Amino acid sequence: MSDSTQGAAQANRNISIIALLTAIGTGIAASAVQILIFTLIKNRLVRIYQPKTYLVPERQRTTPPPRSPFGWLVSIFTYKDKEIINKCGLDAYFFLRYLQTQLIIFVPLACLLLPILLPLNYIGGRGTAKTDPVDGNNADPEAPGGLDRLAWGNISPKQTHRYWAHLVLAIVVVTWVCYVFFAELRVYIRVRQDYLTSAEHRLRASATTVLVTAIPDKWLTIEALSGLYDVFPGGIRNIWINRNYDALLEKVRRREGIVAMLEAAETSLIRKCNKAQLKQAEKEEKAMQHKTGHHDTKEERARRAKNAEETAAQIARGEGVTSGDINQVVHSVEDAIEEGNRRKNRVVDKQTAMGGLAAMGKQFGRGLGLVGKAGETLVEGTKNVGGTIVGGAKTGKGLEGQIESTNGFVWIDRDPLCPDMRQERSRSRNNSNSSQTHFADAEPVETQISIPSRDVSFGQTPDTPRGFGEHRGVKGPELDNIPYRFGGGDGSNDSDEMKNSWWKFWKGPSGGFASPMPHGFERDEYTQKRNFGQMVTSGGQQIIAPVKTLFTNNEGPQHEYPPHIDPDYVEDEESALWAKYIKKKDRSTHRLPRFGIGILPYIFPWVNTKVDSIYWCREELARLNVEIEYDQDHSDDYPKMNSAFIQFNHQIAAHMAVQAVSHHIPKHMAPRMVEVSPTDVIWGNMSIKWWEAWLRTFFILAAVAGMCILWAIPVSATALLGNIPELIRQYHWLSFLRGAETALKSVAGILPAVVLSLLMILPPLVFYNLATLQGNQTGKMRELSVQNYYFFFLFVQVFLVVSIASGTFATLAGIADVTSIPGLLAQNLPKASNYFFSYMIIQALSTSAGSLLQVGTLIMWILMPKLFDNTARQKWKRNTTLSTVHWGTYFPTYTNFACIAIIYSTVAPLIMVFAIITFTVLWLANRYCMLYVFRHTEDTGGLLYPRAINQNFIGLYVMELCLIGLFFLVRDDKNNAACFPQAIIMIVVMALTALFQFLLNQSFSPLYEHLAITLEDEAVLRDEAFERAQAARLMESDHDDSDSDRDDGAARNPRVPDTSVSHDDDIELELRKLRTSQSTKSGGNGGTFNPLNPLRTGATWATRGARTLGAATFGDLDTAHARRRRKKDVEAQQLMGEALFGGYNDEIEDLTPDERDALVRVAFQHEALRAKRPNVWVPRDGLGVSDEEVRRTERVGMGNVWITNRGTALDGKGRVMYGRNPPDFEEVSLIML
Question: Using one digit for the tens of pLDDT, what is the confidence trace for 774-789?
Answer without folding.
Answer: 999 999 999 999 999 9
